[in-house]
Design brief:
mainly beta; Immunoglobulin-like; ten-stranded antiparallel beta sheet; five-stranded antiparallel beta sheet; 7 helices; 9% helix; elongated
Length: 588
Amino acid sequence: MTLNRRQSPMARLQRGPHVLSLLFLIVAATLVGAPRASAQTIIGVLLNEDTGAPVGRAYVVLLDTDSVEVTRGFANGLGRFRVHAPRAGRYRLRTERIGYRSVVSEPFELGDGEDLELEVPVEPVLVRLDPYTIEGSRECRVIGDQALEVLTVWEEARKALSAVAWLDPREQLIHEMDHFERWFTPSFRMVHEVRSTEPTHNVMPFRSRSVEELEESGYVVVAEDSVVYEAPDAEVFFSTPFLQHHCFMLDRERRGGRQKLGLRFEPVMGRDNADVQGVFWLDAETGALEKLELDYVNVGVWQRERGARGELEFAQLPDGRWFVSRWWIRMPVVRRVESMTGPIWHFPDAVVGFKDEGGEVLRVFAVDGRTLFARGRATVSGVVVDSTTGQPLDGAFIGLEGTERLTFSGADGSYWLTDLPQGRYNVTFSHPRLDFLGLVDSSEKREVRLREDVEVELNLAVPSSETIIDRLCGEVGDAEVGLLLGHVRRPAPDTSLVTDASVRIVWVAEGETPRVLDTATDSLGVYRACVPRTAALSIEVTADSLPLRAVSTTFGDDLLHVVDIDLERAEPPVLPRATFSQRDASQL
C-alpha cells in the first residue's frame, strides 16, 4: 500500500470468606488512554484504491518498526481518521475492517510535533469464510503450523477482539447495563438473585494479569480463602506465549438460520498448569465475531473445574465500532467441609453451589445523548448524500413516519435511528437543501421493514439533478433545459432574504426574438426558472423601492445553476455645488 503524503499547513500543520472471583476481560488496559496534548498527529483519509471513494467504518492501527501496535484510531463514514503518536519516529499504518483483508502501508517518518496528512489507499478485498471446509482443519495445531483457512479465521477473530478492546479516548460512550448476580445450589436450582441497572463507560469491569504471570501460575489461583479464575484479555489472547502453548482448529454449526464458523483453542499436550480452552464463533458470511465461549482445564480438583465457564457476546454499533453486548461468568462456590473418619478429622474443599455474574447492555448512548443501540429493538442506519453535488449532507433530519423517533446526520452524512418498533414504516428526511431546490413536500421517504435486533442499512439522498428538473420543469424539460435558481438579498448591512421580489429572465435563442420569463421569489427568498442551458441569460430583479438589479450569466455544463442576487441601495441624487471666491478685504 502506497501512501500519498501531504504536509498540512500547520506542519509546514459476597457470601462468607470463601468467595470465588473471575477476572474476565476483553478490554486491555494498555489500549486505554488519552493522547498527550503535544503528541504527533496523523490526519488522513482511507480511499478505495480502485474507485477513489472513501472507505469508512475501519480501524487504523499505528505500527512501530517491529510491527507492534502503538495506538489506533477509527475512520468515520467519510474515511477520515486521526491518530496520535506518542513520539516522533518511523511508523506504518495497518487498516482493519471486519470482513475485509487487512492492508499495511509503506514506512513513513513522523517528525517531532508534526501534523502529517496522508491519503491511504485500501484494497477492497472481501474475506469470505463460508466456503471453508473443516475436514482438514480438525487437527489441533499451533498457529505457526496451521493451514490458510485457520489462519484466516484467526485473523478475523483477532481484528474483532482488538476492536472491542480499544476505547476511543475522544468519545467515551455510555452503556446502560443490566447487571445481575445469581446463586444456585449444586443441582443448579436458583436460590437468590440481585439485579441492578447502571450506566458505565466500560462494559467489562475486570482486568487480566500479564501473559507472563498467567503462564507461570496458570489461570486458576488457589489462595488460602479463595479461588480466582482468570481469563485472557485481547493482549494475552494474541501474544506469542499464548499462541505457542495453545493449538487451534476449525468447527462449524448452524445457529439461528445462519452458518457459524468456530475457531476452537485448547492447551497443547504436556501443559499441567490450570489453563483455558474455548471457541470463537464468527458469522461465516460476514466474518463478524459474535461470541466467545470459555472453559477451564487442568484445574486439578474436579469439583472446582466443574461448571466454571463464561461467555461473551459482541455487537456492532451503527457507526462501525464494536462492543461487548452481553457477558456472564459461572463460578463454583467452594467451602471447607468438616468431616470425621473414626478419630481423624478431615477438612476437604467441596462445591456447595454456583454463582453466576453477568451483564447485558440495554442501550448505548453517545456523549451528545443520541441512542446508538437499544436491545430488543430495530435500528436503521446509513448515509445521507446530496446527489446534485456528490457530497454528504450535514444536518439532515431523519425520522420514522408515524412515530416520534427523530435524529440528524453528522458532518460525514451518517445517521442512525435506534430503539425502533417492528413493522413496515417510511423513513423520511428533510433538509434546507430540499427547500432551496423547490421540492414541494420538502422531504424524501423510503419504506423499510423493521425486525427485532436487526439493523437495516438505508442510504438516503437528495434527488439527482435530472429528477429535480423532471419534477419542476415537467413537459418543458428536455436535454437543453436547466434549472436556474438563487436567493435574493437586501442591500448590506441588512442582507436579509427578500420575498415576492419580481424576477425577469431574458434570453435570445439563435435566430429568434428575445424570450422573457417572469417569476418571483417565494417565502424563502428563492427564485427558480426552467430555462435553456445554451443561451446567455440576463436576470433582472426589482423589489420594493430598490433600483433594478441586472446580472448576466451562462449555464455551462451543469443542469442546476445557482445565481444569488444582492440588491443595491439607490444612490442619493447629486446636487450642484455652490462655489465661492474668497476676496481680500481691501478689494471690497
